[in-house]
Amino acid sequence: MQVAVKESSKTVTEILAAVKESPKTVRGILAAVKESPKTVRGILAAVKESPKTAENQIRHRGEMSEPGSRWLQDK
Fold this sequence. Notes:
By secondary structure, the protein is mainly α. The protein has six helices and no strands.
């Protein structure tokens, strides 16, 4: 996650906020980090692919703001 923090601390903050909302998704995020430890893009790609991740759970509950949902598409 250190590389991720350097690349985009806002994205990491949003991921960590999502983890607080849905602690069970930590496994999904850690799996993404294991597969693509060098970039935030690997984490975000895994978030997009898996419906059980925090981002999707929050979006389905309607709690994620419009700018917050855009960060997935930007990466």
